[in-house]
Amino acid sequence: AQSVTQPDIHITVSEGASLELRCNYSYGATPYLFWYVQSPGQGLQLLLKYFSGDTLVQGIKGFEAEFKRSQSSFNLRKPSVHWSDAAEYFCAVATNNAGNMLTFGGGTRLMVKP
Amino acid sequence: EPEVTQTPSHQVTQMGQEVILRCVPISNHLYFYWYRQILGQKVEFLVSFYNNEISEKSEIFDDQFSVERPDGSNFTLKIRSTKLEDSAMYFCASHLRPTDTQYFGPGTRLTVL
Question: How far is A102 from chain B (nearest CA, A)?
């Protein structure tokens, strides 16, 4: 069964600083990979996804992520964080079987200092 | 832009009562899901539904849970006899094809007293 690990539970960065959120997955084949963001009291919004092809994917709000098969990682990055980026970020993996359920990591809560 | 909607946004119930959480997926989508998120924890898969039957379900989805697509638009999750530990945010999601992104609704917060 697939699993996702987000090693950092909380991260605090200063506004304008760069950001990298880590995600490692466990799955036998190449999975479908996602990053979702959840603002307080809100639902889940897709930031970006990787299915195949170019291993560096661009998403909304200036985010990008890089799939590294050798490291089983799909880290999320942003060059310059804005105060509005404060939220909880979830990495998720899906397989291409009939159920296609998403397996989520535990999430990383991002706080942004002014 | 089309979106997944869920009602109610917040449901409070007494332990042992039945609840039905409602979702309206995006209209042309074919695959439907329920997930839940206990406060402070990660999002967990409950069940997937395609072609009017359950495709996959997790260990959480025991015989107290059921899903139904009673008409062409609604997708419901029923909990027959709620327990305190059922208190959570319940998210509905849908997509057109297995390789597509799942679009999530805003969630229903269920509080069991």
Answer: 7
The model's pLDDT over A4-57, given as tens digits with 9 standing for 90+, comes to 999 999 999 999 999 999 999 988 777 889 999 998 877 899 999 998 888 999
Structure letter (DSSP) for residue A30: P
Q: How open is the CA angle B35-A21-B57, to the nearest 5 degrees? A: 20
In a mutagenesis test of the A interface, which of B41, B95, B99 is the best target, namely the one with the most A β-carbons within 10 Å? B99
Residues 6+ apart with CB under 8 A from A100: A94, B31, B48, B55, B98
Contacts of A59 in chain B (CB under 8 A): none
> Backbone phi, then psi, for B56, in 5-degree steps?
-155, 150
Out of B93, B98, B104, name the one closest to residue A96 (CB). Answer: B98
- Sign of torsion over alpha carbons B25, B42, B49, A3: positive
The CA distance from B12 to B10, in Å, is 7
Question: d(Cα A113, Cα A83) in Å, to the nearest integer?
Answer: 7
A86, burial (CB in 10 Å: exposed 0-12, middle 13-18, buried 19+): middle
Residues 6 or more apart whose CB falls under 8 angstroms from that of A109 comprise A9, A10, A11, A87, A88, A89
